[in-house]
Amino acid sequence: MYNSETPLRAELPSSKQLTRSTVIAAVCAMALLATLVLPAEYGIDPTGAGRLLGLTEMGETKTRLIKEALADAAPASDAAAATAAAMPPAVSPASTTKPAPLNEAAAATPDEATATVKWRDEMTITLSPGEGSEVKMRMKEGERAAFAWSVQGGVVNFDTHGDGDGNSISYKKGRAVPADTGNLVAAFTGNHGWFWRNRGEDKVTLVLRTSGSYADLKRMK
């Protein structure tokens, strides 16, 4: 019924040949995993090849977007509970205790807090609903940069972070924030900056101002 002939025992691969082929396949798979898959999918670059091929940055962006999506999907009740827990207890109308005055530094707006800073760079970014953007500064470890950014027409989610040479760090995150200001100190040599996303229903305009010790300011996307 079948025309094919049964192969002779001598024609079959030996156990040694099968073992060698298996080892070669495993080594190739591990090499592809380390140089292509891990950098492109998770931003992990143990060999440095992913950074040279431009895959590590793509993986870091994917990981950040996944974390942001998970945070946005958290039940609104959790945020409401956290807000309620952070609220001070209600004061009885009969109480004669006067509230403590607000700290002037805490009450200051970003423009007031950085009024004496001489800005080196300024960048304006327009974000449509659902759109995100990333801006980075090339900094050496220990270098400091002052910054102030504000949003016109709405609020944004943000992640102040850094990456480079296999290192990554998140300095600060926020949701539905209209502005932020401060000093960014590089934890290691690499790229340090911000990722913003407009989760609102209207287009917004974000203005970023920076000054201090950094090589350059660049919009990554």
**Count the helices. How many?**
6
Low-confidence regions: 79-84, 86-113
The strand count comes to: 9
The main sheet orders its strands as: 5-4-7-2-9
Quick check: average pLDDT?
78
End-to-end gap: 64 Å
Largest beta-sheet characterization: 5 strands, antiparallel
Say what oligomer this is.
single chain
Overall, the morphology is elongated
**Structural class label:** alpha+beta
Global Rg: 27 Å
Report strand %.
Answer: 25-35%
Fraction in helix? 25-40%
- SSE run: HHHHHHEEEEEEEEE
Q: Strands, helices and their partners?
A:
Blueprint: H1 15-42, H2 49-53, H3 55-72, H4 76-86, H5 104-107, H6 110-113, E1 121-127, E2 132-139, E3 144-152, E4 156-164, E5 167-177, E6 179-185, E7 190-197, E8 204-212, E9 217-219
Antiparallel strand pairs: 1-8, 2-7, 2-9, 3-6, 3-8, 4-5, 4-7
Helix pairs in contact: 1-3
Q: Any overview of this molecule?
A:
The protein is 32% helix and 32% strand. The model is unreliable at 79-84 and 86-113 (pLDDT under 50). By secondary structure, the protein is of the alpha+beta class. The chain has a 5-stranded antiparallel sheet, with no helix packed on it. A 4-stranded antiparallel sheet has the order 1-8-3-6. The chain has helices at residues 15-42, 49-53, 55-72, 76-86, 104-107, 110-113, and strands at 121-127, 132-139, 144-152, 156-164, 167-177, 179-185, 190-197, 204-212, 217-219. It is elongated, with a radius of gyration of 27 Å. Helix 1 crosses helix 3.
